[in-house]
What we know:
Blueprint: E1 2-3, E2 7-9, E3 15-17, E4 25-26, E5 37-40, E6 43-46, E7 54-59, E8 73-78, H1 92-95, H2 112-121, E9 126-129, H3 138-150, E10 154-159, H4 165-171, E11 177-181, H5 187-194, H6 199-210, E12 214-221, H7 229-244, E13 249-253, H8 270-283, E14 288-291, E15 301-302, E16 309-314, E17 317-320
Parallel strand pairs: 8-9, 9-10, 10-11, 11-12, 12-13, 13-14
Antiparallel strand pairs: 1-6, 2-3, 3-4, 5-6, 7-8, 15-16, 16-17
Helix pairs in contact: 2-3, 7-8
The structure holds iron/sulfur cluster (SF4).
Amino acid sequence: xxxxxxxxxxxxxxxxxxxxxxxxxxxxxxxxxxxxxxxxxxxxxxxxxxxxxxxxxxxxxxxxxxxxxxxxxxxxxxxxxxxxxxxxxxxxxxxxxxxxxxxxxxxxxxxxxxxxxxxxxxxxxxxxxxxxxxxxxxxxxxxxxxxxxxxxxxxxxxxxxxxxxxxxxxxxxxxxxxxxxxxxxxxxxxxxxxxxxxxxxxxxxxxxxxxxxxxxxxxxxxxxxxxxxxxxxxxxxxxxxxxxxxxxxxxxxxxxxxxxxxxxxxxxxxxxxxxxxxxxxxxxxxxxxxxxxxxxxxxxxxxxxxxxxxxxxxxxxxxxxxxxxxxxxxxxxxxxxx
Length: 338
Ligand code: SF4
């Protein structure tokens, strides 16, 4: 166990965690919602320091990042627990464990040096903190991020965007890119499906953009839950007006087979995804992508000015047709970080 950052001790011996917007008040010997932080005598400790539940060498497109170092490899790591309880979770085996404390003995402790060595040794240009919510393991990940940065690697988070302002400020100097799940524009969805709130996510998206961290957004379109076209249209308007139209938006198809609690739901009809794609383009979102529809041409990057094909994607194969991040036809920037 390692002492946690971001908390205060209350007079009654409880500890208030300030790491994410749940702000859990945690009694002695109890854990917060994410199960990763435990109160021990008024002090808060993280259970997950050094705990890696999964690691893979992934194409960066799989995270997904389409405008950040396209065609590169990301050394992807995940831990245990989550501060959300999404019914649709695809990684529930590691994110929705019943107790982190009870299964800790199943994992050996991996130091940050080894993560960085493995990333470099496997020709990865970045480390992706993914699979479960990286926020809840921030003490460990900050140590990895510092070392990664010192060794020329980029740091990428795949996140639900629910971290506190204090957490954001601490990770910003080391964070190169982040993909945030904007699951819906309906607070009821966040309440009922994720046990969370929409507003902190929207606030954090704006802060990340202001900080000029590379940002991409993903929305999983779930039939009957997050496929309302007006709500999707509100997300498109939010991206175009409150963030920036150059923020890539990934519209993903839902698959019941791999979801935690929605196994009886149908897969998303492709019509609704294509409809949302067109609405987003009309709203001024320049880079819209469909996800989980293999071989679809709407996974490609087209020039927002002249519509020339710039990056062709087939699965995770990437064919660059641009010239140094610019359109070969009209020379417009394609807003790519190399
Ligand atoms: S990080 Fe965990 S313990 Fe802390 S406020 Fe969020 S859910 Fe609660």
